[in-house]
Amino acid sequence: MCSHDRIKRSTGLLRAGGGVLAYDRRVTERAGGGVPRWLRRTVTVLVTIVAVVAALVIGLTVLPSNPPVAVSPGALTPEQAEAGYADLIAKDTADPTVLPECKSLDVRPTVPQLGVVLLFHGYTSCPNQFSALAGRLAAAGYRVLVPRWPEHGIADTDAEPNPVDGQELANFAMRTTAIALGLDKRTVVGGLSGGATLALWAAEHNAEVQRVVALAPFLGPTSVPTVLSHATGNAMRLAPNVDVWWNFSRKEADQVPRYSYAKFATKSLAGLMSLGSTLGATRSNAYVVHVLNGADASVDPAVVRALVGRQRDAGDLVSLYEFPASLQAPHAYVDPDDPANKIEQTLPALVDLFTTGATGLLTPS
After folding, report:
1. 95-127, pLDDT tens digit by residue?
2. pTM of this prediction?
3. Domain that holds residue 43
């Protein structure tokens, strides 16, 4: 037997045709070095998918988050500030879609005024969330403003009618902070969750704010690893908006409180993340107080502590307090319409922090 015949019979890979050695596809695909064709194709597809996803993640990670710009309306006189806030309340009152309890609040002190406290309610909530705390602060001598976020407190909907981007949120924070400072230079700002993010951002961009009290600031979804947070924010910012259930398992349940949206808008969440991404990069003249809730699984304490570190590195004076997990306080523990609220257990310490910047009821860390 010639050598050509031996090769042909032993491998099946070559055949003679018109004097030219040709590729025997049938035998090669059957042999394939012992790897079936379907497996090789599957591996190729999977490798391609992984490469594309990795490229997208890397691209979204290095892409700037396009944070909003602080646009100040300028210093307001007391008369301009009064008119500005009265206009907010008048618009809320005239809008039939706004729930009665969700109109912007203006709670006057019952004793000689010691200053103004500007409170930003949480994302997907409304001003009523802070009504109980506002009453306590007013009794302590502070005029309390709780403006309604754009697209919040709307009746008969489970999500914002229109998402609010980062620049709109920044403009809202700057405008209302200018009003508070116009009313009284002794201004303290504060907020819960997304509202705490707004408060921290407003304090960094308004040098006259004296103190900021941030209750569990929202810096990114806890379901997303920190290393992917920036990429996730960019993806939500660039993609079309989607309304997502906070808790899909409760989609058939009644909204409680009724003004608390059951869904969040990805565009709005991306806007909040863009605000939060800049925190700690600029020194704040305000004394900064962070308050964590040990039972709140929606906030990553490690991320907040990292922010505290950045703020201290920038030269800020920062204190950090935490309600113990044993209190079992829900995320919106200050909301009087949340059946699980912990108002009686938490408001005394919060009043201390807003009015003096310290409290003996909690241990600082």
Report:
1. 999 999 999 999 999 899 999 999 999 999 999
2. 0.84
3. 3-61
